[in-house]
Amino acid sequence: MNFITGLDRRPLAEIRSAQSELLREQVRYAFARSPFYRERLAGVDADSLSMDDLSGLPLTSKEDIQRKNSAFLCVEDKDVAEVVATTGTTGEHVYVYLTKNDLVRLAENEKRCFSYAGIGADDLVLLSVTLDNLFIAGLAYYTGLVRLGAGVIRLGPHSPKKHLEIIETLRPTGIVAVPSFMSAIYKQADKDNISLERSSLEKAVLIGETIRNPDFSSNALGLMVERCKRLETYSTYGITEIAAAFSECAEHKGLHSHPDLVYPEVVDESGSPVKDHETGELVVTTFQVEGMPLLRYRTGDITFRISEPCACGRNSIRIGPITGRKAHRLKVKGTTVYPRSIENALVGVEGVENYVIEAYTGDDYADRIVVRVGSNNTGSSFKLDISEAIRAKARVAPQVEIMPPQEVEKILYEGSRRKPMVFIDRRQKVHDVKL
Ligand SMILES: [Zn+2]
């Protein structure tokens, strides 16, 4: 492993030259060891590559990994140190294999993310994310904190009440959580008359949900978590397949990449890179990965890229907040909408306990959206408030239904999913359409 500490603060040309070398190494390695890339990279002269040639290399999709999972593996079975999983396009497991060195790389990535958030060796951090079930996130945070020399409380996905008890007793200075779960902790604190303002917590690293708008202001979820003025919130976004994460610095103006570990691009429909600040699909190339390196991996997530230096002094490429999943793009009366913007509207409405967004194919083959909101508020103006909030934030007017929260909960975990599915795509696939 060759971690280049401080590379993100070096001049842009120096970063690019270091990345050209890392790209050559990763391409040579993948070509030599992965049956998938040996075929995909036929004719590519790895030794003459530079970062300027990257956009000419073929893209890799999730379907590729799904269909040919073992053909991506670059090491012998005995050298696999950890197997993690992500969910494939049709709900099944897609496995990602990590070696001992990949685990070190994962920890190094997360250690840096924590230090961007001002978390150091003296901090005690409460992990409210799960460490098992083949998830990479908990593992990354845990090993990152250990590498940083910080203290860890591995509480995992326990109730908000248990979290409050641990916060009062063990006095952690930081927390890693999903933003909507943070909001559940606040609600419980209000109920129990506990002031988080007077608690030990100072920093929150928030994962899994976006807390910023594309202009970096806080969205409804972000504002909800920032209600506690004492707590500084940092957004982070990780991808299982690349075993790395992007994270905010104290400027809160986008998520930094680590230039010796990954290289992010943003591409259009045809796979060509778009200009900075233009929206498209995030594509990531890994550096220094041994188990399952990925070249130009299409993440399916929608964002934009920022190449100019950050006010924090780092010159690493940043990405904007994730505004949606490419596969979840909906078209309603000519307007493109991602379920996430509907979610952003819903979390800002008082009385909304949970929700599920469903997409159907309408009579004219246009997308039809049904939003089922779990709430005990049955007042007639409540439904109108929700419709109005969605219209204002997402510019669409879907069908809204109010249901008891436990009914929505059942839909969220339909088919015993390991994660609640907030967006359910019930649209007819092209091959289902009978003409
Ligand atoms: Zn910065």
Textual characterization of the structure:
It is a single chain. This protein is an alpha/beta fold and 435 residues long. It folds into 2 domains: 1-324, Rossmann fold, CATH 3.40.50; 329-432, ANL, C-terminal domain (GMP Synthetase, Chain A, domain 3, 2-Layer Sandwich), CATH 3.30.300. Helix content is 29%, strand content 23%. The chain contains 11 helices and 21 strands. It has helices spanning 12-33, 35-40, 62-67, 100-116, 137-148, 160-170, 179-191, 220-225, 339-346, 380-394, 405-412, and strands at residues 82-87, 93-98, 124-127, 151-154, 174-177, 203-206, 232-239, 244-247, 255-256, 262-267, 280-286, 297-303, 305-306, 318-319, 324-325, 330-332, 335-337, 354-361, 367-374, 399-403, 423-425. The strands form 6 sheets. It has a 6-stranded mixed beta sheet with strand order 4-3-5-6-7-8. A 4-stranded antiparallel beta sheet has the order 10-11-12-15. The protein has a 4-stranded mixed beta sheet with strand order 20-19-18-21. Strand 19 (367-374), helix 10 (380-394) and strand 20 form a beta-alpha-beta unit. The longest helix is centred in the first third of the chain and has 22 residues, at 12-33. The radius of gyration is 22 Å and the shape is globular. It binds zinc ion. Zinc ion (ZN) binds next to loops.
